[in-house]
């Protein structure tokens, strides 16, 4: 049997982990996978997470199964964090999933059950796992152009025109904030326009919200999603706690649905539960319980928010530092967009060849055509990095 299988190469992000690990040079820089790093290059366990884990270990007296939707106090906490009461409780439901990827996967399976012939539109460029999951699940997929590499801005007019050509019932994947890979985000006004298009064309949004708190702040990052949720009859959100709670390997996420009325929402919720059962049964508890403990304790919530805000500010400072270093080094303002972008990533206007040259000649690791993890930037090495970027002709 196994001889019938073809090799499955990892996606470009995962592939880079192996290449970086195999590089024996002392001077190397990992700007690849989206993992937050502090100034010592460490990915810390957040203070509130440590405390919540201490309490969990001390107080947990059983590891018996919970329900198929996971820990409902976690799901409710995520709904409040994302929607802040914008949607009537009877129209919203969710399932705990293993990470944001698990949420996107479950939601894609739900689309296949509810609208097997729908086309799912995703941004070009996007996180490589979007098209990969759509293909795996067997959904029709098309792209909408999102980014103008020459200006570093969202190509909103093209995006809007493309979405107007979608058919009623089609699904649109949107990045809730901190667009991955570009770092170029929709303004609130553009969210309103996309909402109007979805309403006029009968499209269903699927928002991937993996970086809430990493862009302009926890509430500001959810502004567009909240506006949309307030106006759309149906919508889906795949949320991740990997980045904003730093729970990467614990796999904590939520698949959230907004239905047009209480009855359809209840049926959709049952479908989410069944999909969990079919794919992995009960979702993993530990990380979700940690999030629930934090979100249900005002002191821990405050401490978590403060640390998250420090991380966000740190990334902003690094962004500005790199934009400045590149302005000096390139003697131009063509990299100024880096300081305007928000979130964990920025897309440098490179080519695969130039990104390869950076890796081979300078030991700098970037994804694809120049996606960089802002949190991986070296505070004291920005000038050297800018020199290398300009030297390879990016
Ligand atoms: C990334 O884009 O680097 C992260 O979302 C990690 C991943 O799973 O790809």
């Amino acid at each position: 049997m196994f001889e019938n299988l073809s090799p499955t190469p990892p996606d470009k992000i995962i592939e880079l982990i192996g290449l970086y690990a195999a590089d024996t040079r002392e001077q190397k820089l990992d700007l690849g996978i989206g993992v937050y790093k502090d100034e010592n290059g460490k990915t810390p366990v957040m203070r509130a997470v440590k405390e919540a884990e201490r309490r969990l270990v001390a107080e947990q007296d059983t590891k018996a199964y919970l329900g198929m939707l996971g820990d409902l106090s976690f799901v409710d906490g995520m709904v409040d964090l994302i929607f802040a009461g914008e949607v009537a409780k009877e129209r919203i439901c969710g399932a705990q999933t293993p990470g944001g990827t698990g949420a996107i996967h479950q939601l894609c399976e739900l689309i296949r059950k509810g609208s097997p012939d729908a086309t799912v539109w995703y941004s070009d460029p996007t996180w490589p796992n979007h098209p990969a999951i759509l293909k795996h699940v067997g959904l029709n997929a098309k792209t909408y152009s999102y980014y103008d590499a020459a200006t570093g801005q969202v190509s909103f007019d093209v995006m809007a025109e493309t979405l107007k050509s979608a058919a009623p019932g089609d699904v649109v994947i949107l990045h809730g904030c901190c667009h991955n890979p570009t770092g170029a985000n929709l303004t609130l006004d553009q969210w309103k326009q996309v909402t109007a298009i979805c309403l006029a064309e009968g499209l269903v949004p699927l928002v991937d919200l993996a970086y809430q708190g990493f862009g302009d702040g926890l509430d500001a990052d959810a502004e567009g999603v909240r506006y949309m949720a307030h106006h759309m009859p149906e919508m889906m959100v795949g949320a991740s706690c990997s980045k904003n709670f730093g729970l990467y390997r614990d796999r904590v996420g939520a698949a959230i649905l907004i239905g047009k009325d209480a009855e359809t929402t209840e049926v959709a919720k049952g479908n989410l539960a069944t999909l969990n059962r079919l794919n992995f049964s009960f979702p993993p508890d530990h990380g979700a319980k940690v999030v629930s403990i934090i979100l249900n304790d005002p002191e821990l919530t405050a401490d978590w928010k403060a640390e998250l805000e420090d991380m966000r500010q740190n990334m902003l400072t690094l962004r500005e530092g790199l934009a400045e270093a590149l302005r000096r080094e390139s003697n131009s303002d063509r990299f100024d967009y880096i300081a305007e972008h928000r979130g964990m990533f920025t897309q440098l206007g490179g080519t695969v060849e130039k990104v390869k040259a950076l890796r081979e000649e300078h030991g700098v690791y970037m994804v694809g055509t120049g996606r960089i993890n802002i949190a991986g930037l070296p505070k004291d090495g920005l000038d050297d990095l800018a020199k290398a970027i300009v030297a390879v002709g990016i």
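The CA atoms of residues 48 and 303 lie 6 Å apart. Residues 65-296 form a domain with the Aspartate Aminotransferase; domain 2 fold (CATH 3.40.640.10).
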